Amino acid sequence: MSATATTSRSVLRQAISGQRRQVTLASVLAACHQGGEALVPVIIGVVIDQAVAGRSVGTLVFWLAVLGVVFAALSYSYRFAARAAEGASLRAAHDIRLAISRRVLHPGGGAESGKLAGELVNIGTSDAQRVGVVNAALPFGIAALAGVLVSAVALLRISLPLGLLVLLGTPPLLYLAHLIGKPLERRSEAEQERSAHASGVATDLVSGLRVLKGIGAEPAAVARYRDTSQNSLRATLRAARAKAWHDGAVLALTGIFIAIVALVGGHLASSGSISVGELVAAVGLAQFLLTPFLIFAWVNGELAQGRASASRVADLLTTPTVVGAGDGELPSPAAGNVRFTDVSYGSLRGVDLEIPSGQLVGVVATDPAAATDLLDCLGRAGDPTGGKVHVDGVDLSTVDPERVREVVLVAAHDADLFEGTLAENVGTAPDEALAASAADEVAAALPDGTATAVTERGRSLSGGQRQRVALARALAADAPVLVVHDPTTAVDTVTEAKIATGLARLRQGRTTILVTTSPALLAVADRVVVLDGGRVTGEGGHADLARDRADYRAAVLS
């Protein structure tokens, strides 16, 4: 038994147990409904035998009143059972979405590995909903079983052979339905995977639409999505065919079973073993049995799809984190002394680097991958494979990543803005942070200033405006250690010089690491460190390095 299979069952159990009260209430009410439905043909049979055959008006009125009460109870129980089941379904799906969101946003990372953003959204929406529907299906499955049991008891009272036929015939029928549902489960999982991948590709293409148009790559993008969409369509059609085959096969089996019950009842009536009223009740019960068996087919299909989706949810929830929690403690308040000791990670090879508290240091990486790896180590997006990164003498790999990011803020080059106003994106940024990042000029140029609405990912702003707003957000956090990666690649030289001066002034006395090749930013740094071949190959002032090192000039001034 695989760990994934065990965990997928755990996901289903948690979805059910989390809404146990609602599921139980829905099951009881739905069982009352199905039980009452089964009693209707029995009561009609009694009416025929006692009232019609006996020509008793009083008896007829009495049983009609009983029938009216049963119908009223049926209406009430079904309405409230459906409400409780649907509520349990929606709440369970909501709980699963919260669990998925917590895992995706976990400081330890890892959930996004190998998955596009659209795939994660698909798991958090479609798969979560399918797992939640199990809570709506179970009560009606239990209710259908109750209907079958009431029918069997009624048939046993009418005729022992009829009752035994239903009681003994139902379990094999349910087992066959379960076997028939296996292909549907497999194809449903494949359908969800292809659909999630198609959603991920679509999201990826839409987010990069402006770039695609700029390089004239629309035909290649359309071709890529067409292939992905066709794969998704084929998987969906296979799943639809499996569901149609499943529903048709179950319907055929139940039809044959019900026909057998009706034939046996007719034979018993013709031989005089049961009365006319009992025959009517038996035929009515045989026809009624079609409803619980159809419910069984629906429930089996929903459970098959729910199991497939639960497996995908379980895979996401059990994805190991990239970094562990750790029990180390950084001092509070943190001074911000940073030290790399023989650090190897990705393209970094034995990096030794000391950044005293309060110093503004520029880092020039001749390989962009080395810059990214440096950021990962500082923000604990990954732990070094060799060596240590210390902040205030504490090994970062021993500290919870959430606490690390309270002390060390890494402002990535591609940081996104959120949908909302400019003010909501920068938070409680003081005027000094807005001025230092030149984001005050962005606000001044917008129709409603900081109250201007920003679209998803800040696409309503230019690239330079987005960079300045993102930098203002990072500066506003006032972290003890601020790591900024290429914050001015999309702004003009005049604005870049203003940002360099403002950033140095605002961060005075606070540790700041500028991973950049911008001459304007490097010029205001206390010192500049050169990373070449994944190693520290030199350090000094910007002017001195530009004069003495050809590799530095090539990286910064070319």
Structure, explained:
Keywords: ATP-binding, Membrane, Nucleotide-binding, Transmembrane, Transmembrane helix. Residues 25-305 form the ABC transmembrane type-1 domain. Residues 333-558 form the ABC transporter domain. Pfam families: ABC_membrane, ABC_tran. InterPro entries: ABC1_TM_dom, ABC1_TM_sf, ABC_transporter-like_ATP-bd, ABC_transporter-like_CS, P-loop_NTPase, Type_1_exporter. The chain has 558 residues and is an alpha/beta fold. It has three domains: 1-159 and 275-281 and 288-322, ABC transporter transmembrane region fold, CATH 1.20.1560; 160-273; 338-557, 3-Layer(aba) Sandwich (Rossmann fold), CATH 3.40.50.300. It contains 19 helices and twelve strands. The chain has helices at residues 3-17, 20-52, 57-104, 117-158, 160-207, 209-214, 218-270, 276-288, 290-317, 368-379, 401-407, 422-426, 431-436, 439-445, 463-476, 493-506, 519-523, 542-548, 550-556; strands at residues 338-345, 348-355, 360-365, 386-391, 394-395, 408-411, 420-421, 453-454, 481-485, 511-515, 527-532, 535-540. The chain has a six-stranded mixed sheet, with helices on both faces. Helix 1 (3-17) packs across helix 4 (117-158), helix 2 packs parallel to helix 4 (117-158) and helix 4 (117-158) packs antiparallel against helix 5. It is elongated. The chain starts with a helix and ends with a helix. 43% of the residues are buried. Mean pLDDT is 83; it is low at 1-6.
